[in-house]
Specification:
Length: about 190
């Protein structure tokens, strides 16, 4: 009897709660509500950046995801959350191109599309002290970008070779630097 009374009381409270005229809360959702909604629960900001950027899904995606110099901003409809990126790393996403590009400052993981999707490329990233940070053969992602976690507070040059041509562009990983490189045009013979 006690259990059924408790169940009836709980059902009554739920019914009453559904009938109130209280205004919706102006309190923003908990930071991980957006993360949970997008299916990234339990993942770090770094893992989420990599998962979205490398996704084979066609752009634009059904949500917003922007990599800034120190944070990842995720949006779903009117909800937004910001996740801090590692303090010692900077994410630079590079979209080499031959004929068409777009302006980009903060890489939009959900909408940015480069010209060369799923293309074999050779990437060399060297800091201004001459230290080689990256030197490898890889493939651009389906979105035409390829991303790298680099040390913060450095400057240098990214060189990409593809299909017998190459190009280079400067980069920086200081506060306020762009996370999206769409200025690397492949024009020089390799």
């Amino acid at each position: 009897m006690r259990k059924s009374l408790a169940a009836v009381a709980a059902a009554g409270l739920l019914a009453l709660a559904g009938c109130t005229n209280a205004a919706p809360s102006d309190t923003p959702p908990a930071p991980n509500a957006v993360v949970q909604q997008l299916g990234f629960s339990g993942q770090s900001a770094q893992q989420i950046v990599e998962a979205i950027d490398t996704s084979p899904d066609a752009r634009p995606l059904g949500f917003g995801a922007s990599v800034r110099d120190s944070e990842l901003v995720l949006t779903t409809g009117a909800e937004e959350t910001s996740l801090q990126l590692p303090a010692d790393l900077f994410y630079l996403s590079v979209a080499p191109y031959q004929t068409r590009t777009h302006e980009c400052y903060n890489h939009s993981l959900a909408t940015c599309r480069g010209e060369l999707g799923n293309a074999d490329v050779s990437v060399k990233i060297v800091d201004d002290q001459g230290k080689v940070l990256v030197d490898k053969q890889t493939k651009t992602y389906a979105n035409g970008f390829v991303g790298f976690w680099l040390p913060r507070d450095i400057q240098g040059t990214v060189t990409v070779t593809h299909d017998g041509v190459k190009g280079s562009a400067p980069f920086a990983t200081t506060a306020g630097s762009p996370t999206c490189m769409t200025t690397l045009r492949l024009t020089q013979p390799a």
